[in-house]
Every structure is written in C-alpha cells, then in structure tokens.
Specification:
53% of the residues lie in helices and 9% in strands. The protein is built from seven helices and four strands; from the N terminus they run E-H-H-E-H-H-H-H-E-H-E. The chain has helices at residues 6-13, 19-29, 37-44, 51-58, 69-82, 89-101, 113-119, and strands spanning 2-4, 33-34, 104-107, 123-125. A four-stranded parallel beta sheet has the order 2-1-3-4. Strand 3 (104-107), helix 7 (113-119) and strand 4 form a beta-alpha-beta unit.
C-alpha cells in the first residue's frame, strides 16, 4: 500500500508525466492506494475541482486515525523543528498518518524528508519530468 501527498495528486490530476504521477497511476490501477484524510481535505479545498473528481477522490480507501495521533503529530513536528528543518503543520499531519500505519508516502515535496529524518517516514520521492 502507498499514500500520495497533495503535490502528487495534483500532478496526477493535471496529467503530469512526472515519475510520481506515473507511480500513482500504477498504484491506483493495482488498487494499492490509500487516502490520507488531510490530503483529501486539501484536495477538496479547491473550489475549481470538478464534482466528479471530488467524488472519485472520496472513494479512495481512507487511512484511519489512531488514538493519540494529535499528540504524536505534535511531537513529530517538534522533532523536525528542533533539527532546524521546515515542518509545516499539514505536512506533519500527513507524515504522522503514514508513520502510524507504516505506509510509504509518494510525494514530490522534498520538505517531507524532515519527517523521514526525524521519525523514519518512508518516502518515495517523485521526480518531475514535465
């Protein structure tokens, strides 16, 4: 199983030829994708998102949030900040969701490396080819 960050979903939906978009396409075809709740929220926040796309995105199996998640996410973010790394709140929430479920995160956002360093988030960094 794999989860995709908002940056990869957007690239995929825009028809990008990037490596990450291709990996997401293959994983969707193989039914190996789960949705991070924060990512779904970010995607659905686009007022121009077609309703049929929103409906399809909402059908991707959702990762469940475990008890203590909010506390762990705060500690994770604090670890990254203590290392002098950029650690946006949304990214910390996405990272903690994947860490809790031991799911790899497909992304083109290199800021997630801070969470890999701080807590072992398994990243699949996509390369933009477009």
């Amino acid at each position: 199983m794999i989860a995709a960050d908002t940056s990869t979903w957007i690239a995929f939906l825009e028809g990008s030829k990037g490596e990450d978009a291709q990996l997401l396409d293959k994983a969707l075809e193989d039914r190996q994708v789960v949705m991070v709740p924060v990512v779904l929220t970010e995607l659905l926040s686009d007022p121009k998102l077609p309703s049929e796309v929103a409906e399809t995105l909402s059908e991707v199996p959702m990762i469940e949030i475990e008890p203590g998640y909010w506390q762990r996410a705060g500690v994770l973010r604090a670890k990254a900040i203590a290392q002098g790394r950029k650690a946006r709140l949304g990214d910390a929430l996405i990272a903690q969701t994947c860490i809790d479920q031991n799911i790899s995160l497909l992304t083109r956002d290199r800021d997630f490396r801070a969470f890999g360093d701080a807590a072992g988030l398994d990243l699949v960094l996509g390369i933009r080819t477009d």
